[in-house]
Design brief:
Strand content: 15-25%
CATH architecture of the domain at 177-214 and 292-426: 3-Layer(aba) Sandwich
Structural class: alpha+beta
Number of strands: 14
Order of helices and strands: EEHEHEHEEHHEHHHEEHEHEHEHHHHEE
Largest sheet: 10 strands, mixed
Helix content: 25-40%
Length: 428
């Protein structure tokens, strides 16, 4: 028999836009900044957790296994087991899914599951021919051999490559993530104007959520070592409009591409935690859950169309649970690119696609825009890859409580041609 699993609380840092150099926080710094206030408001001791799981993609050299480093810095005790997981953009959601399955199957009762990413700290790496040259120099048999080797030195050996640039390029298809969005824009006839319009709406929604205080219980103020205060997602542009976005050039497919810096997710630093509990832990500690995790699914497809994966995994959940499109009150679909989100929506409305590839009797249906990413998304707040999947699950639970929804699906595409989705049921 399986047990019910509850999402009882969660918190995240503000998402801070990368601005040309290392930001004020490392991945573990971010995890600690989000975790401290979250733990302070819990009615149980910090060592009550059975396990800590943290998603992180760009682990820095000084923080190997950041889950364990964060657990120790958060005061969870030396006996606390903690491990880090990596499935690219799905890492933060995978941490929740792993915790969900442990608790569901009876081996654990209370787990801290999160994601942390500091993309501004992505390392600089040497080109392969430079690495080979330095290796040859180190292997020189003597001064004369080394001097001879030095004649092969080239100026470009001193020009490193940002590791993130390589990480965002698929090694199988040799397409970067933006190019995969261009593929979808072409296949589903997504126009530049449609993509820009979606991006403007994302900024407007996040700006409104901030102004109305809808994120106050979710976003925790962070303080850096210079005593600076960071209290909100700082990539939002409330004055964004179609005219400004129209002036931007395509980034990946010039001159006719649809994907620009303005309708893509931002390179960002941020962390998010969720607390998952069994019914036994809920009763023992007197907890008030936000939502119950009902189901989860992972999917995979051709990496060149990786942005379409949310359609596969979300539809599989809907089929398994007997849900129609209208039965889902709220959706969080991570905004990797506006064109990618719009392609997913178009696929669900395409009868031929849904019958041939999803095994449905007809089109899944149109998702109303007022049910999708109601408070903005990665285009306006950023996409710290190891964190985003955790954030969208947490925010879905909070948004359902605020708006009175019953069911919600959080889903995202994953670099490398995968996708993840989770179905939540609100606890009113």
């Amino acid at each position: 028999m399986t047990r019910p699993v509850y999402l009882v609380d969660g918190a995240r840092t503000p998402f801070l836009k990368a601005r040309g150099g290392p930001g004020p926080f490392t991945p573990v710094d971010l995890a600690v900044q989000a975790g401290r206030p979250l733990l302070l408001r819990q009615p149980f001791a910090r060592d009550a957790f059975d396990l800590v799981i943290l998603g992180c993609v760009n682990v820095i050299a000084d923080e190997m296994n950041p889950a364990r480093v964060a657990a120790l810095r958060l005061g969870l005790g030396e006996a606390m087991v903690a491990f880090t997981m990596q499935i690219n953009c799905g890492s933060g959601m995978q941490s929740i899914d792993t915790a969900y399955r442990y608790i569901r199957d009876g081996s654990h009762d209370l787990i801290l599951a999160g994601g942390a990413e500091a993309l501004s700290h992505a390392p600089l790496v040497l080109r392969q021919d430079a690495v080979e040259w330095y290796a040859g120099l180190a292997a020189s048999s003597g001064p004369l051999d080394a001097a001879t080797h030095l004649t092969g030195l080239r100026p470009d050996f001193f020009k490193p490559v940002v590791g993130l640039e390589r990480g965002l390029t698929d090694p199988i298809t040799d397409l970067n993530m933006g190019q995969t969005a261009e593929v979808l824009a072409h296949r589903f006839d997504i126009s530049r104007e449609q993509a820009d319009e979606y991006a403007v709406a994302s900024h407007q929604r996040l700006a409104r959520a901030q102004a109305e205080g809808w994120l106050d219980g979710e976003v925790m103020t962070a303080f850096d070592r210079e005593s600076r205060c960071w209290d909100r997602d700082d990539g939002v542009r409330p004055d964004s409009d179609m005219e400004k976005l129209a002036g931007l050039n395509p980034v990946f497919e010039k001159p006719y591409g649809k994907v620009t810096a303005g309708n893509s997710s931002q390179i960002t630093d941020g962390a998010s935690w969720t607390i998952l509990a069994s019914d036994r832990a809920v009763e023992e500690h007197g907890l008030s859950p936000l939502a119950r995790i009902v189901d989860s699914e992972w999917s995979a497809l051709d990496p060149s169309i990786m942005g379409l994966a949310p359609v596969l995994c979300s539809t599989e959940i809907a089929k398994r649970q007997g849900l129609a499109c209208a039965d889902v009150d709220l959706w969080e679909l991570n905004e990797a690119f506006a064109a990618q989100v719009l392609a997913c929506l178009a696929a669900w409305e395409d009868e031929d696609f849904c019958t041939a590839l999803l095994g449905l009797d007809g089109a899944f249906g149109a998702i109303p825009r007022d049910r999708l990413n109601v408070d903005g998304g990665a285009i306006s707040m950023g996409h710290p890859v190891g964190t985003s999947g955790n954030r969208i699950v947490l925010h879905l639970a909070n948004a359902m409580r605020r708006l009175g929804g019953t069911r919600g699906i959080a889903t995202e595409c994953i670099g490398g041609g995968q996708g993840g989705a989770m179905l939540l049921e609100a606890m009113q």
